[in-house]
Amino acid sequence: MDQPNDEESAAEPPSLDSNTSWHIDDLLFAPFLFIITVYICNLARDILLQANVMRLDQVQKLATAEIIGTFETTVIMFEINLIVYPLWGVIPYTLLVFIALHWQKLRPDEFQYDANPLTIIMKHVEGIGTAGNSYYQRFEFVMIMIWAETVGAFLSYYYLVNLIWANAHMWGFWDTNNNFHYHLFTTAQEWQASISGDPTFAAFVEGFFSFAQYVWPLLVIRTGFDGDLTLILINSGKAIFAGCGAQYSGGYFNPIIAFALEYKTRGHSLFTKTVVYWIAPIIGTIGGIVTRKWLF
């Protein structure tokens, strides 16, 4: 894999100056963005899934739920990765990742989604259905769901960058000089990849924690915990994994979300980013599936 060069070095998140008003103003804007996004997604679920105004069949409803859920998750994770992590550090980042993961699992069954192709691959290999169905055992359904996730993730990129961040200075919270969201929009073509240091180690981090996030839930369950406590422990572990990996690769362990954000970044080739964010996590997931079958 390539190494960062002097012109396009694999840098940290966008550089910040000492302007502490960024911290305050952007702290106010982040939850405002979350509320807007969640409202839009819930409205779409009510119209397209609950009311079913388009008369979707079950597969179409599952794919639609995946598009909406991936859109919602990716918007939140973009905000966490690009705003929370560089401005406030790894502890708030880890806490918000936990909240995002937990929020995802509190949905009613008909609104459930994965927002991660690794989970879909795991369900396919292990023959796990959702809401009592066996769709995930069909390869063509798996491809439909991964495509739906891709659509949701890339829609979220353009929603954030070209609609929200591009017009953040118009929301009345601040002027453009103190607006880190607007700063990200104006420097979007200069973003540096989240891969810091050796890309091989970044690939190891993505692969190892992709492995861990599928073994950890069974370890928690085997300890005898159940109910809400089990879900809290599982999501806490996954959030800690993300916090540990953030400084090396962005801590995604999710090819769709990672690629939607990273595919246009500078500093590393598309091949390197494919290895780090697709190949390594898939290998780690396969290892996790094998371990689950072997140990449990």
From TrEMBL:
It comes from the Eukaryota. SUPFAM superfamilies: Aquaporin-like (SSF81338). It is found in: Membrane. Keywords: Membrane, Transmembrane, Transmembrane helix. InterPro entries: AQP11/12_channel, Aquaporin-like. Its main location: membrane. The chain crosses the membrane at residues 27-45, 82-103, 141-160, 275-295. It is a multi-pass membrane protein. The keyword Transmembrane applies. Signal peptide: none annotated. The keyword Cell wall biogenesis/degradation does not apply. This is Uncharacterized protein. The lineage of its organism: Eukaryota, Metazoa, Ecdysozoa, Arthropoda, Hexapoda.
